[in-house]
Amino acid sequence: AGPGEAKPGAPFPPGAWDVEALEVAPDGRVAYTVNEDGASRLYVADRLGASPRRIDLPAGPSEVGTPTSAA
After folding, report:
1. Taking Cα atoms as reference points, which of 47, 51, 49, 50 lies closest to residue 25?
2. Which pLDDT score, from 0 to 100, does residue 1 have?
3. pLDDT at 18 (0 to 100)
4. 55, 37, 65, 10 alpha-carbon torsion, rounded to 10°
5. What is the edge-to-edge ordering of all strands in the sheet holding 39-45?
6. Which residues contact 64 (CB under 8 A, 6 or more apart)?
7. Which end of the chain is more exposed for a tag (fewer CB within 10 A), N or C?
8. Is the pLDDT higher at 18 or at 24?
9. Cβ count within 10 A of residue 48
10. Strand partners, 22
């Protein structure tokens, strides 16, 4: 695995001790954000325990998993 990538079977990438949000879809896909040096990074995996891949997002705080209210 390269920098920022988890080893096969690892649930989170190396150094991902600050998981901000985690969502599991009904089909088992997993999305989560981690704080890496003050920036939110999004990772997705086909299932918990599968190797996640990082999705590049614009810089700034994440709102993944944050409930929204209807106006």
Report:
1. 47
2. 45
3. 82
4. 60
5. 19-24, 30-36, 39-45, 53-55
6. 20, 21, 23, 31, 32, 33, 40, 42
7. C
8. 24
9. 13
10. 32
Closest CA relative to residue 48, chosen from 15, 8, 11, 1: 11
3-state secondary structure of 8: coil
Ordered DSSP codes for 11-67: SS-TT---EEEEEE-TTS-EEEEEEETTEEEEEEESSTTSPPEEE---SS---TT--
Query: What span, in angstroms and rounded, lies between the C-alpha atoms of 34 and 61?
Result: 10
Note the pLDDT of residue 56: 87
pLDDT in tens, 21-66: 889 999 999 998 888 888 888 889 998 778 889 998 776 555 655 5
